[in-house]
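Fig. S4 source data, part A: sequence.
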Amino acid sequence: MPTLEPLNVTQVYRACPEDAFDFEVTSELESLDMLSGHDRARDALDFGTSMRSEGFNLYVLGHPGHGKHQLVGRFLAERSHDEPTPPDIAYRYNFEEPSQPLHLLLPTGMGRVLRADIEQLVEELRSAIPAVFEGDEYQNRLHELKQAMGERQRDAVEGVRREAREHDILLLSTPNGFTFAPAATKDKMMSPEEFERLPRDERERIEGTVQVLQKKLSQAIRQMPRLAKQLREQITALNQEMLQTAIDAPLAELEERYADHDGILNHLTALRDAMVLHVDAFVAEEPEIPPEAIFSRFHINLIVDNTHCDGAPVVYLDLPTHQHLVGRIEHHVHNGTLVTDYSLIRAGGLHRANGGYLVLDVRALLMHAGAWETLKRVLRAGEIRTESLEQAYGLISTTTLEPEPVPLDLKVVLLGERLFYYLLCENDPDFLELFKVQADLEDELDRNPDNQPLYARMVATLARESALRPLDRSGVAAVIERASRLADDQTKLTARHRALSDLLEEADHWAERDDAQVIARAHVEKAVEQQLWRASRIHERSHEAIARGTVAIQLDGSVIGQVNGLSVMSLGDYAFGQPTRITATARPGPGHVVDIEREARLGGRIHSKAVMILSRCLASRYAPDAPLSLSASLAFEQSYGGIEGDSASVAEACVLISAIARVGIEQRFAVTGSIDQHGRVQAVGGVNEKIEGFFDICQARGGVKGHGVLLPATNVEQLMLKQTVRDAVAAGDFHIYAIETLDEALELLTGMPPGERDDEGHYPAASLNGKVVERLEAFHRAVKKRAASDENSAHENTTDKDKNGGKPEDGNGDKESDPESEEPGDEH
């Protein structure tokens, strides 16, 4: 097998040549659409915003670092610019049912005009109505009505009085009303003594006549309320007539102006009817309803004014609570009681975005109680019902307003991570009915000669939008190289704009410190260096523990059953690599590979799966036709946290083989990579951090010369190593080997040829694999010998039992299970 050559410096880092650009500074470049490269997402946005059928709302998927709000905001701003501006929304008083205010949908800009017109109308009426009722015409006509009614009332009584006189009877007024008395003379009442001296027939005549007159007087008096009622009706009719003269002209003017708008005409008609109905409020000195209370019902509550909206509205709701979505009804304290009316209705995000686009962050939406269900209910109903959360769920029974629902016509755009999208798809059956369009943003863009100039324009756009200094060609090249590192791939560039924007702003800061006019490579690299420095405290403490020997890592010599694995620790958005000492033991046994991390409940499921695959790989590799008579253990030494992932399985396989064959492993190497059941090495994550972490430890412990790292060959394109590592690779001091099989790793780590099977399936005796097979055969013989010995002991115990009445001599009949009856790796 040929010896592997280490990677050269061009393989561990892909530089961006400055001559690939035809500009001097990025200010020469045109701005770029930030959705360039996200073709799939752009097509989805274009389709979702143009599809008018119900349920075709959008969910924009992507990493939090994409800057989804800015990307989607720009797209929607462009799309909405050419779309019609929606109507204004207002609420008006419902004179028939005050607890159910009515909405008005008004052409754009008409809301504020109508509000001003009604305010002017009220001001006119405040002066015009009193003037009418204080005028001479009204006072004269009122006097005439009252005088005429008074005459009618007097005529009714006088008729009875005249008839009484004709019968020599007087009608007298007393404090208690009217009374009849016989007359002595024309105007003088007869005394009781004189009445008693009259003849009996005369007295009976007078008494009979008085009874008849009393009936007629009663009839005349009973007419008084009816006459008073007639007077009131006449006065009311007069008041209404005079009121009409005061309000006809201003109302007619408004009715003519808004003749094409039925809702406004209905409101104006309701105003007229309300004033006529409550005309007494403008006349009485202490009316039950004061005029101001009536005038207050005339105004409209303009909750959405789209006057300054250019095209369809695009509303981003950063706090999507129930009330912020559907609006709220405010209250104020009056005489110690909470009261409300239609003027206290406030718009929600759905009102303001109606006719356009409402943008919501799905994480914030799901965090607020009831908000998600409220949004779904509104979208299903196609109308916005303004009510409190307690009212919506029937948790209160107090009387409150029930505003007329507003018809809904908008697109909802949710911004969120992919995890939330798939969780909602899985757990909410309504989700895909309401959000049928997914716009999935790319995490990385291809890095090729065609895309690099476009990426430079994107960098120029980000700098221009943030009002930063332009970049020269070296600065753009440095940003592109950093973008590849952030993507962990030489052939990709990160599409996460937030990380790039932060980098550019920090680079601009260092350029300002240097009094530079442009951002150059040195400023970008300084920004990267400072970003890492600020986040590296725990990184440094961890590496310090290794450098001081507190955490044992051996970097020289050859040790049996010990290898340096590589791991990555992630802390927020910062990750660093460090070596981990992995050890193994091997002895004869029933075919078990004990994962100590799993037994201690420190190993995750993926790591446990990797150990199972490893045990099967060893079994099929070294004992394809016989039981694997092995009892082995694997451990990550001085590891006190959880272990997860399969990136240590190549190292674990090598250290197990070393322990079985009793062949030492070179400690100057560290290994990372996953393994399959056939011994092929597979790609893993975090290779840049792992290599740099081992490099830093070697450098801190005396130098990197002669040291190196083994990694999967499929990870080579992901290498974007820092400058110090590249320098060491270029000088031949630090070696990075790309391996494809377990045999390649074993040869590098042990210095022995692994050997290949001959036609009969045997490995060469002097090869590493031959030593492993030889040792495993010795294990198998030892296991069989032990099993035979246990079987003989059991037989002797049975014989002794028969001799002693069925009682064994030592009372212990246990024995080990037959290793050939067990499958290797059963613990996993």
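Fig. S4 source data, part B ends here. The two ends are 34 Å apart (CA to CA).
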